[in-house]
Known about the structure:
368 residues
Amino acid sequence: MNTQLKRNTLMPLLGITKPIIQAPMAGVSTPALAAAVSNAGGLGSLGVGAMNAEGARSVIRETRALTDKPFNINVFCHRPAQANDAVEKTWIEWLTPLFSQYGAKPPQRLSEIYTSFVVDEAMLNVFLEEKPAVVSFHFGLPSNEAIRALCKAGITLMASATNVREAQQLAAAGVDAIVAQGVEAGGHRGIFDTGADDEYIGTFALTRLLASRFDIPVIAAGGIMDGAGITAALALGAQAAQMGTAFVPCKETSIDAGFRRALLGDDANRTTFTAAISGRLARGLVNKFTELGRSADAPPPPAYPITYDAGKALHAAAKAQGEFGYGAQWAGQAAALARELPAAELMARLVAEMEESIAGLQQYSSTR
């Protein structure tokens, strides 16, 4: 293991001592979580894609008050939504009986509830002023001008790819590391073009493909829940593992009680993809909302993130009546391996498991 880590160029670049990156998880991650992971030697992350610029500035400063270690700030680079009044009206009408069931009315109109980073100059200016150590992109890339400005500010850049073609775009754009997001991953698929075919490549296959073809570091993401998974990712050429679902039950996250119960119970054994919650394909626990999206009479959802406006409103209405099954309970395929631990304790457990799995491999090798 020590020999392998000496060859690792990503860890010194990120300023970390453990090859563990906590996934950004907008709406779940908090400054307390990111700081705890960074203080334990990994790279903590904050998802600010659903915030405005000043909200992002606030959480960056709050995290800095909790750690002097590097941390990652993640933004969404999707194409700005194209409104369609007819589609949105049909979607609202379809959901109206459910709102009524929980004593509420749906929104009269749906809106684009947050701005894509590709057109968010205010967010870019906050990054240039605050200079977080790392900024990462999901769903694609911002403009070349924005990338140059961030690089000039001394910010390390990472971005997710779901296939080789996307990784080629990232390499050409000059990002410092590629997050190989396998189909097992919880949350939104990072595919750049939602109109293109998705190859649904698994984490380990994608990691090996990218590590063998690109000189820049690769980070494996999707379905990795313990130290053995991290070790396997490193063996395939990744220089770190990005883990989201593993950190979701940590006490430092902002999840509600219903999500916590589902993730730590039998519901964690079933995940599925749905676009009904947000308008874009995402993997989460099977719940009332994912089942609703499978209904034969379900109309096409509005564009992402316009659909989220209705989804969040329905969740709030149902939750007020004690029903948590309409939440965005994003989780990866190995969710049933999740453990409810403080983040620092989870980090220590992951490192111990890595050491144990490496020792086991070395023992196996010595007996041959």
